[in-house]
Amino acid sequence: MKMNCLSVFGLRKVSFLAAALGALSLATCSKTDAPDPAIKDDAANPADSGDKSDATAVPPVADAGASADTGASDTASALETLYFEFDSSRLTADSQKDFPKVVEAIKNGSGKIRIEGHCDDRGSAEYNLALGERRAKAIYDLLVSKGVEASKLSTISYGKERPVEQGSGEEVWSKNRRVEFTPQ
Asked: What is the count of structural domains for the chain?
């Protein structure tokens, strides 16, 4: 009799652990196995997956033409916010067009820049931290590939914790799927 009680208790424990692990694995899954590349070198080629919304709702901060003796804060104020497709580390078509200005502003600046990855509020905090990191890292890699010194750059992900706009709907969400640049 004692053996049967232990066996039932052990079976319940195993069933509970299996259910918990299944729920955890579902919470951390994404719809794709590998992140998309952020942009193609040919900016005329529009994005071929994800959300097709207009991401131009936030106007550029300033002209990206910074002089060579400009400090980090001047460089950061000249940088465009870059926007991403839904659930992706791929830039929107409009941000692909803005990317060369970002490259030039950072190359011409003398200070260090932090690349901050952000997401909209859909999905778990853990998933969005990982997605924000993929976005920041994708921009970091692209900047380095375009000749920006790696020592001038660092990355961080804020996930969904720092939205620029509260609410729901594609207009709000598209503004929160972004990378911003701040001086260090």
From this structure: 2
